[in-house]
Every structure is written in C-alpha cells, then in structure tokens.
Amino acid sequence: xxxxLKLSQVIDTVSNTIGRLSSWMVVLTISVGFxxxxxxxxxxxxxxxxxxxxxxxxxxxxxxFMFFFGFPYILKQAANVRVDFLYTNWxxxxxxxxxxxxxxxxxxxxxxxxxxxxxxxxxxxxxxxPDGTWGSWEVSSDADGLPRSPIKTMLIVAFIGLLAQAxxxxxxxxxxxxxxxxxAQTLPEDTDRLPLQGKRI
Length: 201
Fold this sequence. Notes:
The chain contains 5 helices and no strands. It has helices at residues 2-46, 53-77, 92-125, 149-177, 181-192. The longest helix has 45 residues, at 2-46.
C-alpha cells in the first residue's frame, strides 16, 4: 500500500504541475484574443490585413488546452461541481467506498474507452492511410489555418492524464478503506486551498 501511495503522490505532483501550466493558458488565450480583436478592427481602419485565421485558430487551440490540461487537476482537487445531499452526511469510509467504486467502474473505463476511440482518428489526422502508409497530416480547411493533428492529439493526452489521476484517486480511496486515516485528511485539504471551490448542493 505504501508503494501505491508513493505512486499516487508522483501522479498528484504531475497533475498539479500541469494544472498550474494550464492556468497560464488563460493569459495566453486572452493575449491572443486581444491581438485578434485589435488587429481586426485596426486593419479595417487603415485598410490593411493585419490578422488571419492562424491566430484565431490558435486562440481556439489554447482554449482547448486549458480544459485538456485541467482535467487531472480538477479531479485531484475535487473542484468539480457535485450534488451530494446524501454523500455529505456519510462517514469517511462510506464516501471512500462510493468514490472508489465510481472511479474503478465508471471513470477509469471511460478514460480507457476515450483513448481507444480517439487513437485511430488521431493517427489518421497525422497522415496514416488505410494501406498503412503515411501521407500529409490534416490541416484546417480555412485559409491560413493551422494543422489539426496537434490539437487532436491532445484528446489522447487529456484522457491519459485523467486516467492517471483517476488511478491516483482510486489508490487514495483504497487506502482510506484499509484504515490509512491520514490519507482521508489530505483530501479535503486539497479543496480548501482552492480559490474557487466546487459547489455542493
């Protein structure tokens, strides 16, 4: 169990790091969006083309990155919105049991299914042809658009990150069920550090 908890700590550290990086995506997205708006209207004013579809699609990509990279962090911090009028009054072990079963039988299979369903379309986006050879990668159909392959690859990356964090959470829930009470104390502390907590109804 101790080895599993060490693995959980490593995964948590990675999720926290990626979560902090995703917060910087907000700044980048706003910056690119500001440039797009400014260049668009300034270009109209002076009669020059100062922008294109590339920075516009880059803004969409960065917006997607925020969510993709944020999935593991949100799960780790328990910052998701939940309806738990029954869950709140349960004991720590009962909550851990419900969370463990939900994670093992629903969340982890969902992540595995997401990876499996996304795998071939992502390879095809990178240029994999039906005969097994490789062609050119997928590019936006819009003029001056960006390649689609990198953003589609982030689907798999997001599911892998969420899967890893789901395994970490399952380990912690199992530890609580086995009597490691100190693990139970760390779960609410993670949520308390958030500036915006998940709302419970």
